[in-house]
Amino acid sequence: MQQQRVVANRYTLLAELGRGAMGVVWRAQDQLLGRAVALKELHPPQGVAPGEVAVMEERMLREARTAGRLNHPAVVTVHDVIRENGRTYLAMELVDAADLATVVQRHGPRDSVWMAGVALQVLGALDAAHSAGIVHRDVKPSNIMVRPDGAVKLTDFGIAQAMDDPRLTTNGGIVGSPAYMSPDRLHGFEASPASDLWALGVTIAHAVEGISPFERTSTASTLHAIMNEPPQLRLASPALAQVIHGLLTVDPSRRMTAAQARSLLVPIVQGSTAQLPPMPQQFVPQQPKKKSPALKVAAVALGAVLLAGAAFGGYLALNPENTSAAPTGDGTKQGDQAQGSSGEWSEPAALPIGAPLPSRRIATFGRGGDVPEWNLSGTQCAKDFLIQGSGVRANVPCEGPHGIQLFSAATPLWDKPKETPYPGLVWLADFTKSYCTEQFKVIEPNAKDALGFTGLIPTQQEWDAWNDAAAPGRQEILCVLWKADRSPLAGSLVG
């Protein structure tokens, strides 16, 4: 019989409760106090940079510190922090419950009265956090545990932001789940109690309608829905719909407060909604005003920030029953043409080795690709041009002469496990054309010279090599630019 593993000479690991890209959660027995606990173990996959591991460790410590400042029955208690043999562990209250996302997935849309009771408990946990100067920043169904007796626990304060604590990112990216972010956050304002309440409104809508009201097939379309498409409520009771619309008021200064939401939720739970007053005009959903092109470009630019920071936004298990995130086919034909800001994307016949890659032509990079090696990241520059069959192996300072610049990158399936199957060339090409075109619109007006640009997508071999310890494969798409006459660039074009 295999000997049970013991952590810190105290916690005996009994069974695995869950596993994600960044670690494992165990059911464990605290031998000192004789109680069952959940032990969260940080266990990043091979190939994660040391700096990123340090950020993940700090997030776990932040979760412990944040939970330690809160005393509320709907907040998961953290008992202990352990560092042993180069790994970090959190010993936490064991909650034998499914998360709200799983409840909805397995059992369908929730009854409005039941959900009002859940929302009241989450509201209490948020009240406690906000009173302590803490903003959760990632309220969503998968972070709400619901026990069979109806008791609720709000979990994962790992990215919570104390109002006197700098935000924890390595690249300045916004942290959180895009489908639950408020318009004020997408416009660049700091996370606040009002943005947590917006996320609670989205969560309530998701639970009673059975689908997330804003989640779409890409981050860009999700952001567009948040800012332009009021939620369609078909199953929510009129009283709960009033709460949802109030919490999803676009202007945070006019958004329903926690006290106002509580005053409406309590009668729903008690079954006394007949005497509720009419909804104030400020909470009546309005059709959004048409956005100016400048605002649309700003929104897309912010989408790039979200995607750039998405590696730290958490990893959700892929739901095999929901294939809307991306197709799973392995198509080999390029996607349809898309209108760019300076012309259409072209799809010429295969290029001979040594030929320059044209502007607005999707190419592949990585193992077996048109550009077989790619070593740039961020917004780095290289002296090389994009040449069929030639790799881009080293970066040079953007302040000096250079041939190309990586001006944006995105991880289309950032919230899925690395093991997610290759979505296919067609889907990746379509995503990349739209994404790089919109990103180029932000840069082009400020350029002094005519520019060429294109998008690079990973080959399937590159995608599938994510766990290669020596050279991890990349699962991102890349947007690259250069001078149209292929003379040297000088200075970064990304502000």
Automatic annotation (TrEMBL):
Listed transmembrane segments: 297-318
Keywords: ATP-binding, Kinase, Membrane, Nucleotide-binding, Serine/threonine-protein kinase, Transferase, Transmembrane, Transmembrane helix
GO MF term list: ATP binding; protein serine/threonine kinase activity
Gene source species: Lentzea fradiae
Domain Protein kinase: 11-269
Biased composition (Polar residues): 334-344
Domain of life: Bacteria
Record EC number: 2.7.11.1
Enzyme's top EC category: transferase
Protein name from the UniProt record: non-specific serine/threonine protein kinase
InterPro entries membership: Kinase-like_dom_sf, Prot_kinase_dom, Protein_kinase_ATP_BS, Ser/Thr_kinase_AS
Region (Disordered): 323-355
PANTHER family reported in the protein's UniProt record: MITOGEN-ACTIVATED PROTEIN KINASE KINASE KINASE 20-RELATED, SERINE_THREONINE-PROTEIN KINASE NEKL-3
Binding site for ATP: K40
Family matches, as CDD domains: STKc_PknB_like
